[in-house]
Amino acid sequence: MTLPLYVQGAWFGGALLFIVGLKGMSSPASARRGIVVAGYGMLLAIAATFLIPGLQNLALIALALAIGGGGAWLSAQKVKMTDMPQMVAIYNGMGGGAAAAIAAVEFAKGDAHGLVATTLATLGALIGAVSFTGSCVAWAKLQGVLKKAWRLPAQNAVNVLLALLSLGLGLAVIGLAPQQPELVIAFFVVALVLGLVVTLPIGGADMPVVISLFNAFTGLAVGFEGYVLGNPALIIAGIVVGAAGTLLTQLMAKAMNRPLSNILFTPMVASGPGEAISGTMKEVGAIDAAAMMRYAAKVIIVPGYGMAVAHAQHKVWEMTSILEEAGVEVKFAIHPVAGRMPGHMNVLLAEAGVPYDKIFDLEEINAEFGQADVALVIGANDVVNPSARTDKASPIYGMPILDADKAQNVIVIKRGKGTGYSGVENALFYTDNCRMLYGDAQPMAGEIIQHLKSMG
Amino acid sequence: MDGMLALYIFMLAAFTGYEIIAKVPVILHTPLMSGSNFIHGIVVVGAMIVLGLAETPLQQAIGFFAVALGAANAAGGYVVTERMLGMFKKKEG
């Protein structure tokens, strides 16, 4: 199919705008502009596609665009910021599903000719289908629809078997051209099941990495189908995302100290409590906590997902403003995996109005805990557990943590005495300079604000 | 398309993606994952072509499904990313 120059030119422009937009998104100041630029690229590419001569089913295309695009546009407007990770997962899965469906039509038509095109079509279909069902499972888990981690007996063996079976069927699809319908259907069914079975046993804490991995998968699938369709814009956008997503996945896995192979093949289990912890947890009241911070020179706040769940970020920011007016220096320390995705906590704080120049990464702030009078830990647990540095028996040993224990005083706002997401006891809570403030983060922050105000 | 030419595009695009992410601060990882999620929504263009050239009802049905999914990927990905990035502000107020 030879396309007129204006269609090809528009696609080229779309790809260019994507790259420029993605580049813009790599710095906070220009990030917003970046996504808008990329958005124009998408509109341009879609509009040009309508102008392809001889394109049939235009009404169907418009209807599908309206249903899919309109529905997603409306639902994405309404979703809460804490629920963002699962929305990314589900939209990503849809992209993977679209790539797989493109391959399905190509097979049905017998349009994929030649070894390279058939191979890439099949590979894209496999990756896209796995990403589709896998992302749906990831969505269901984060949304709380699926609460249990389903684990088959001999899970790893089943995974490998299914993967081999799908590859084998894929090879048969490639080898036995023209494609046999039964074979193609079997191939798709096995690929879809593979995505389900691989993702089901993975725990919620590991989901961000998995979503990022599926994001990279979908990118690759789109790139491969782009080759089959002879569309360089799809190739470029897909492969750029595939590479960027792969790197992002590695960065996340590194931040959690969980190699990707561990996440996919061994679920995180509390392999034992680790070393016994001596000492007791000491309680403190909101009024004392307020006084400790009010008369401090420097306070570092460590927010965790517990703060976001309690919707306490607005109260925490109000408290921060009062402390700053009183002359206290306040900074926020964010662990790479705080929240449900790297950077998720930054988004939640930004929503509450915290400017991003008060928010610091682990590497930037860890040296400062030694000079802080108070470290206030709100709804975070594993990311401040000093056992990760010292206790080789602990399941989280080796994970980089925020050195909150090095502050003069540590105040921990926590709902109860339970352990964190990983099920590990936190040695920090038993240290001499640590005080526990039991309660829900939002009312507790509210109480601290009241006491701060009465102190003037 | 020329197979070798496509291979070169694959290679250069892979390096471009790698370079763009390599220098990104952690605070942007979530919006960037979401932003790259939006960008592979370009799959909708491929789906439109497939549906536009579909010949049988079966091909039309699968193509329709593909366009709807691709459009959802693009539209949802855009809104989510734009909402997140819209909240990043440098100074209070």
UniProtKB/TrEMBL annotation, chain A:
Keywords: Cell inner membrane, Cell membrane, Membrane, NAD, NADP, Translocase, Transmembrane, Transmembrane helix
Subcellular location, record wording: Cell inner membrane
A GO cellular-component term linked to this record: plasma membrane
InterPro entries, sorted: DHS-like_NAD/FAD-binding_dom, NADH_DH_b, PNTB-like
Keyword Disulfide bond: no
Keyword DNA repair: no
Single GO MF annotation: proton-translocating NAD(P)+ transhydrogenase activity
Start and end residues of each NADP transhydrogenase beta-like domain: 13-450
Protein family per UniProt: Belongs to the PNT beta subunit family.
Stated name of the protein: NAD(P) transhydrogenase subunit beta
Annotated organism of origin: Azonexus fungiphilus
Automatic annotation (TrEMBL), chain B:
Stretch forming the signal peptide: none
Primary residence: membrane
Segments traversing the membrane: 6-26, 38-54, 60-81
Compartment(s): Cell inner membrane
Enzyme Commission number(s) of this protein: 7.1.1.1
Keywords: Cell inner membrane, Cell membrane, Membrane, NAD, NADP, Translocase, Transmembrane, Transmembrane helix
A single Gene Ontology CC term: plasma membrane
Domain of life: Bacteria
Pfam family, one: PNTB_4TM
Protein's GO biological process: NADPH regeneration
Reactions catalysed, as given in the entry: NAD(+) + NADPH + H(+)(in) = NADH + NADP(+) + H(+)(out)
Membrane disposition: Multi-pass membrane protein
NAD(P) transhydrogenase alpha subunit C-terminal domain residues: 7-90
Gene Ontology terms, MF aspect: NADP binding; proton-translocating NAD(P)+ transhydrogenase activity
Entry function: The transhydrogenation between NADH and NADP is coupled to respiration and ATP hydrolysis and functions as a proton pump across the membrane.
Stated name of the protein: proton-translocating NAD(P)(+) transhydrogenase
Organism: Azonexus fungiphilus
